Amino acid sequence: MGWMNRVSKSGSSLSFGKSLAACVLMLTFALGAAAFLASCPLASEYGLPAEKRDPRLLGFWTTDEDDNDLARMSVEPGPGESYRITDLDFDIEEWYEYEAMDALEYYEGPPALSYEGWIAKVGKRNYLVARVLEPEEEDIFQYHGIEFQPDGRLRLSQVMDGFRSDEQQVIVSAEALAAFFLKYQDTDGFFTKRPSLWERRSD
Q1: Cα angle, residue 6 at apex, residues 133 and 132 outer, rounded to 5°
Q2: Kind of pairing, strands 43-44 and 141-148?
Q3: Is the dihedral of CA 100, 105, 110, 114 positive or negative?
Q4: Contacting residues for 171 by C-beta, under 8 A, at least 6 apart
């Protein structure tokens, strides 16, 4: 399990769509589980400005993975308005085994132990912006639409890499990225068709 795809720093300087050479699909929120991804998530070197931290995101969360296993994450306060997001099912020994074989693109376990994340607002929509902290810190960001449901659950929807890829490739700043989001975020295909729903647990 693991809520984010591991992102490679190699290739284009923009780094859009550089998650796992083989595009191994996984995500937990920490954001989402393997079944959460239908395609590669959008990834870039540009963050979006942080909004005030929302205490509703703090706590211990679970979601069904492949309708069988349970994906688990904890969300704690981080520096400033950020969150520290921890994947509670991460197998560090397995990750390092794949790293030693230079075969992380084939690693089917969770992509990271912990993440730094924050909420950003574009127009009327809120996003969870996140980057990997451990095992290897990376300055590559992924983006997820975030909605708090009336019943207390959390709905997360990845922004997809393949959407308007020609326009993605000419984005050269956080401001341009925000403008791209504002232009298309209400368009079909911008978000994954398979959002994940998370439930807060007390245990």
Answers
A1: 15
A2: antiparallel
A3: positive
A4: 14, 16, 44, 46, 177, 180
List, in sequence order, every residue forming a beta bridge with 143; answer none if it has no partner: 129
Residue with tokens 């197998």: 91
Structure tokens belonging to residue 128: 């969870």
pTM comes to 0.75
Q: What is the pLDDT along the chain (203 residues), one digit of tens a residue?
A: 344 544 433 333 344 333 332 232 233 333 443 333 334 778 889 999 999 999 999 999 998 755 445 588 899 999 999 999 988 776 667 666 766 776 656 656 555 578 899 999 999 999 999 988 877 777 889 999 999 999 999 999 999 888 888 888 888 999 999 999 999 999 999 998 888 899 998 76
Residue 34 burial (C-beta neighbours within 10 Å; 0-12, 13-18, 19+): buried
